[in-house]
Design goal:
The strands form 2 sheets. Strands 2-3-5 form a 3-stranded antiparallel β-sheet, with no helix packed on it. Strands 1-4 form a two-stranded antiparallel sheet. The chain is built from 3 helices and 5 strands; from the N terminus they run αααβββββ. Helix content is 21%, strand content 25%. The termini are far apart. β2 (96-106) and β3 (113-123) form a beta hairpin. By secondary structure, the chain is an alpha+beta fold. It is flat and about 65 Å long. It has 2 domains: 13-52; 62-160, Electron Transport Ethylamine Dehydrogenase (Sandwich), CATH 2.60.30.
Length: 170
């Protein structure tokens, strides 16, 4: 077989259930990336453990005009929340989310460190008007296609610390 795509009709098993599972697996493999599968499995595991809803419902309130907010400790780029049509969790019109990086940022006055994921918004027609550029890290643009527009900031959960609160919901 090697690296060539598998034809769903070349299934060798005589068991109908095996054939069905293999066909579904091949069909899914052609449509879904490994990363997407791992994200879904991880989210499902957190849900089973009862942590998914708590993490997903945790949000933060930050000042979109200030790069000094602790949640922006790893940000290098335009804040999407300071761009016309953008927010901390959505790209402005003409831009789409691409690759990301993660930092652990310390909540001031505590020993609690929280994951912050930064995701670049890029595209062929991505040129939002943004008012705030942060230079808190040495990360370059993670755009794989098109031009860089801005960076979203997404809360990801607790890195380390004990007795740490979940961030308040917005």
């Amino acid at each position: 077989m090697g690296n060539s795509p598998m034809d769903p009709n070349d299934i060798e098993s005589d068991n109908p259930l095996d054939r069905l599972v293999e066909r579904l697996s091949v069909a899914l493999d052609e449509r879904i990336t490994r990363k997407a599968v791992l994200v879904r499995l991880g989210t499902g595991l957190l849900g089973i453990l009862g942590l998914g809803a708590a993490l997903a419902g945790s949000a933060k309130v930050v000042d979109a005009s200030s790069c000094s907010d602790w949640q922006y400790c790893g940000l290098h780029g335009n804040l999407c929340s300071s761009c016309t049509g953008g927010t901390d969790t959505s790209c402005p019109a003409g831009c789409s989310a691409q690759a990301s990086w993660t930092y652990c940022c310390q909540l001031p006055g505590t020993s609690c460190w929280y994951y912050e994921t930064y995701k670049d918004c890029c595209g062929q027609n991505c040129s939002p008007s943004c008012s705030t550029f942060c230079n808190n890290s040495s990360q370059g643009s993670w755009c794989t296609s098109g031009s860089y527009g801005c960076t979203m900031t997404i809360y990801g959960g607790l890195c380390s610390g004990s007795g740490c609160p979940f961030l308040p919901a917005a």
